[in-house]
Amino acid sequence: MSYVSVIVLICLLVTAHLPGMSASDQDLDARVRSFLDKNQNRWRDMNVPEIDGQVLYDLVLEHGYTRALEIGTSTGHSGIWIAWALSKTGGKLITIEVDERRHQEALANFEEAGLSDYIDARLADAHELVPELAAPIDFVFCDADKHWYKNYLIAVLPKLEVGGCYTAHNVAGGRMRGIREFLDHLESLPYMETRIDRSSWSGISISFKRAEK
Ligand SMILES: C[S@@+](CC[C@H](N)C(=O)[O-])C[C@H]1O[C@@H](n2cnc3c(N)ncnc32)[C@H](O)[C@@H]1O
To answer: Pocket of ligand 1, candidates 39, 40, 43, 45: which has the most ligand atoms within 8 Å of its Cβ, to mutate?
Structure first.
């Protein structure tokens, strides 16, 4: 075998082990990973724990979602996990935060993580903005004011694609004001299939839309 053939063979083997990953994908992965590692113990604004971020990331990637909505950005931890997955599916995240200081910090974090191109961060009251958003949406993470969870669900469901997924944080125990009403409403909808992920103590409800209502 010639020297050139050996080089070609090595290149083919390397490429085969990196299916679908370009050099820029790998650069972005390294940048996000390094940002997350550096900030692992610095999330202080009611942010999700890393393990819940991983749950959201896996859902988006596994189902190939591209039109995501987050209600309650805070400083951007969950948004980074969702947008990281969207960077691989070719999607974009709209995320809404009402507090200006947290919104500004989230913008800086998205930039530092290299994910700004995948995020449309809005400074707004989600009570007003969510009902105005355009369809279709295929992935939702609800993590804002719990007493409004049921209202967010009612506003988003007609815009959620069949096969789409509606997730909500802090549902474990159902003790926080509004959570019981939210879960009861979900259960009353025959076209929604719900399970509770308990990777962390908070609990995430994960509901798939199986049909148009
Ligand atoms: C639990 S924190 C979100 C944490 C974030 N998902 C993360 O993991 O990084 C909830 C956020 O929702 C925001 N929020 C509460 N009510 C809101 C509303 N009506 N509209 C928009 N944001 C709201 C709060 O200001 C707070 O920053």
So the answer is: 45
Closest Cα to atom 4 of ligand 1? 47
CATH ID of 22-209, from 3.30.70.260, 3.20.20.70, 3.40.50.150, 3.30.750.24: 3.40.50.150
pTM: 0.90
Give the whole-angstrom CA distance, residue 201 versus residue 213: 32
Contact 102, 113 (CB under 8 A): no
- Considering only residues 36 and 212, tell me which one the structure prediction assigns the higher pLDDT: 36
| 37 Cα: distance to centroid of ligand 1 (angstroms) | 23
Choice from 42, 98, 104, 139 to test ligand 1 binding pocket (greatest atom count within 8 A of CB): 98
Neighbours of 108 (CB within 10 A): 12
Least confident of 9-18, 42-51, 78-87, 145-154: 9-18
Cα distance between residue 185 and residue 166, in whole Å: 13
Q: Residues 164, 29, 33, 122: what is their CA dihedral angle, to the nearest 10 degrees?
A: -50
Nearest of 171, 180, 176 to residue 202 by alpha carbon: 171
CA of 43 to the centre of ligand 1 (A): 14
**Which residues lie across from 95 on neighbouring strands?**
70, 121
169-180: pLDDT as tens digits: 999 976 788 999
pLDDT at 202 over 50: yes
